[in-house]
Design a protein that fits this description.
about 210 residues, eight-stranded antiparallel β-sheet, 1 helix
């Protein structure tokens, strides 16, 4: 068994709630977690130039032919961040930042040898978000990112001009101690092991006659 194939029969396992959701609540729990105060998503197509480093294998024969490109991490790097409260819109701020996305470009060299190199693609955000103020622990701006490059053209040396399909999710977040209602500790079901053992049916029999 597992949470997913437990069919939610065990009240101590996570899943859909059947009946009164108040049934079984037994305590208030202080949980240390990351709270998201606001979030927004940008999806855009971007034409940019990338110069590759850390090529594998090293020293490919030029010219190179673009194959594909994709992000190597879902975490973007935030730089040049400015948060400006909007005077006539209480609780809202103008957030401007540059989000850098780590990417990997796949190519073939002049001898037909496949290789990869890494670079970054940067996108500028200028958005309105709810950024809480007036606390000892200040929230931070974080970015979850994805990039896919379906098209690219070789420029020179190890440089490509690429068209990227970019998704950036900006989040205003902080590490907090959050008080939440709880049903108590979660019951962890036994794993169901995948098996094609010929003896499986035999071992399922009771040891003694029933």
């Amino acid at each position: 068994m597992s949470f997913c194939n437990n069919n939610n029969q065990n009240a101590g396992c996570p899943g859909s709630i059947n009946g009164n959701p108040l049934n079984g609540l037994c305590e208030k729990v202080c949980v240390q977690t990351t709270k998201i105060f606001d979030a927004c998503m940008l999806q855009t197509s971007l034409d940019s130039t990338v110069t590759l480093t850390n090529l594998t294998p090293a020293s490919p024969a030029l010219p190179l032919t673009f194959v594909s490109g994709s992000s190597t991490s879902s975490v973007g790097t935030i730089t040049a961040l400015t948060i400006t409260p909007i005077s006539d819109r209480p609780g809202l701020s103008r957030v401007t930042t540059t989000v850098s996305i780590p990417v990997q470009i796949a190519y073939t060299d002049a001898n037909g040898v496949a290789g990869v190199g890494v670079s970054t693609v940067s996108v500028t955000e200028d958005v309105i978000m709810c950024v809480p103020t007036g606390s000892v622990i200040s929230p931070v701006i974080a970015a979850t990112v994805n990039m896919a490059a379906p098209r690219g053209t070789y420029v020179s040396d190890y440089t490509f001009s690429i068209t990227s399909c970019i998704t950036v999710i900006l989040k205003v977040q902080a590490d907090v101690n959050l008080l939440i209602p709880s049903y108590g500790y979660c019951k962890i079901p036994q794993c169901t092991e995948f098996s094609q053992d010929a003896c499986q049916g035999v071992f399922d029999l009771p040891i003694f006659p029933v």
